[in-house]
């Protein structure tokens, strides 16, 4: 999973749930002893000093500077994440969105619960995951083999990638990052941010900002059109200029394409990060209440919880193996 700054991350997760996209691919790897992390040159960050006006609103210039610094930190985190393997668990509570006859599940109550667990590692600069459990039960031998087969195809593809294909892929990734940067900076103009104060999260002081859509704002990019459909709060670590918590709610229906998908009012996302090894901020937990419909037929009324844990460093020369085959360097 790629992690972008605050609002972008939430939007990506939301879109992924709506369209039913798989989060990542799969792999098996032999862990190796810890080695020095990839060096990332970080610019000196001064403590944040937000100065709201008489009404409590923080000027857009300050928000824009804050988001720019947060974007730089997120790019740094993405690079450092390549040194880590971790466990991601997804739990879905499928809800009953309509009333039923006596004895049926009441609206809003869980109708079905299932979970998936992955071990995640980056291979050739790409996040790849191995599905390890369904409903907290280890995969059967045949299911594990299918996972291994899918992984080996990914490994072979990247291992045999031509220089031309690699260059095109990297150019595409950089273009995506540039679009992310523009989107992040537009958030500063699309919302009125009010400083609510500060709060301690995991023993660290963070600014708490509340954002509401700015009336009459004209978005500069297509993706920014959805911003007026959300409101929420963001927590920014004062020392690191790093967003650590995001809480947003859809205040209107959001449509994707021509009746392709609709995310309904009330959809809610809570996203938290944690500082790991005193060097990098990585996902801790994501909670999503999703109320959506795809192509007017498939309805999603779910509570989704993602948890991330067991962050461990690994050597960049980690050996990748597939069950039943010799170790590949």
Detailed description of the structure:
The chain starts with 5 loop residues before the first helix and ends in a 9-residue tail after the last strand. It contains four helices and 16 strands. The protein has one domain (6-320). It has helices at residues 6-19, 60-81, 141-159, 163-190; strands spanning 29-30, 57-58, 84-95, 110-123, 126-134, 137-138, 191-201, 204-213, 230-237, 242-250, 254-256, 261-263, 268-276, 280-294, 298-313, 319-320. The strands form two sheets. Strands 2, 3, 4, 5, 6, 7, 8, 9, 10, 11, 12, 13, 14 and 15 form a 14-stranded antiparallel beta sheet that branches. A two-stranded antiparallel sheet has the order 1-16. It is α+β, with helices and mostly antiparallel strands. The longest helix has 28 residues, at 163-190.
Offer a concise description of the structure:
With 329 residues, this protein is α+β, with helices and mostly antiparallel strands.
Task: Name some characteristics of this structure.
single chain, 4 helices, 16 strands, disordered C terminus
What fraction, in percent, of the residue positions are helical?
25-40%
The structure class reads alpha+beta
Identify low-pLDDT runs: 1-43, 98-105, 316-329
Report how far apart the termini are.
Answer: 24 Å
Our Rg estimate from Cα atoms comes to 21 Å
Outline the biggest β-sheet: 14 strands, antiparallel
Principal-axis shape equals globular
Produce the secondary structure layout:
Elements lengths: L5 H14 L9 E2 L26 E2 L1 H22 L2 E12 L14 E14 L2 E9 L2 E2 L2 H19 L3 H28 E11 L2 E10 L16 E8 L4 E9 L3 E3 L4 E3 L4 E9 L3 E15 L3 E16 L5 E2 L9
Helix pairs in contact: 2-4
């Amino acid at each position: 999973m790629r992690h972008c700054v605050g609002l972008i991350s939430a939007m990506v997760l939301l879109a992924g749930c709506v369209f039913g996209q798989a989060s990542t691919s799969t792999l098996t790897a032999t862990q190796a002893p810890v080695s020095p992390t990839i060096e990332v040159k970080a610019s000196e960050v001064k403590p944040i000093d937000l100065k709201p006006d008489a009404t409590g609103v923080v000027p857009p210039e300050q928000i824009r500077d804050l988001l720019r610094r947060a974007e730089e930190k997120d790019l740094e985190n993405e690079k450092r994440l390549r040194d880590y393997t971790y466990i991601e668990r997804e739990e879905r509570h499928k809800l009953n969105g309509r009333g039923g006859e006596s004895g049926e599940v009441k609206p809003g109550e869980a109708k079905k619960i299932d979970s998936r667990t992955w071990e995640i590692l980056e291979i050739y600069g790409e996040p790849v995951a191995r599905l390890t459990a369904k409903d907290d039960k280890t995969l059967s031998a045949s299911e594990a083999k299918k996972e291994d087969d899918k992984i080996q195809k990914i490994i072979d593809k990247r291992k045999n990638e031509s220089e031309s294909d690699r260059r095109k892929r990297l150019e595409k990734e950089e273009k995506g990052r540039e679009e992310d940067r523009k989107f992040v900076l537009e958030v500063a103009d699309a919302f009125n941010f009010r400083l609510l104060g500060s709060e301690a999260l995991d023993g660290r002081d963070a600014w708490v900002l509340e954002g509401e859509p700015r009336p009459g704002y004209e978005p500069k990019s297509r993706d920014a059109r959805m911003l007026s459909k959300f409101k929420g709060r963001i927590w920014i670590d004062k020392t690191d200029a790093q967003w650590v918590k995001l809480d947003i709610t859809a205040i209107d229906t959001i449509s994707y394409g021509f009746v392709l998908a609709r995310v309904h009012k009330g959809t809610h996302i809570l996203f938290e990060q944690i500082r790991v090894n005193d060097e990098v901020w990585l996902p801790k937990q994501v909670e999503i209440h999703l109320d959506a419909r795809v192509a007017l037929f498939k309805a999603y009324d779910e509570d989704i919880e993602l948890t991330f844990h067991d962050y461990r460093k690994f050597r960049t020369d980690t050996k990748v193996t597939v069950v039943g085959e010799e170790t590949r360097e």
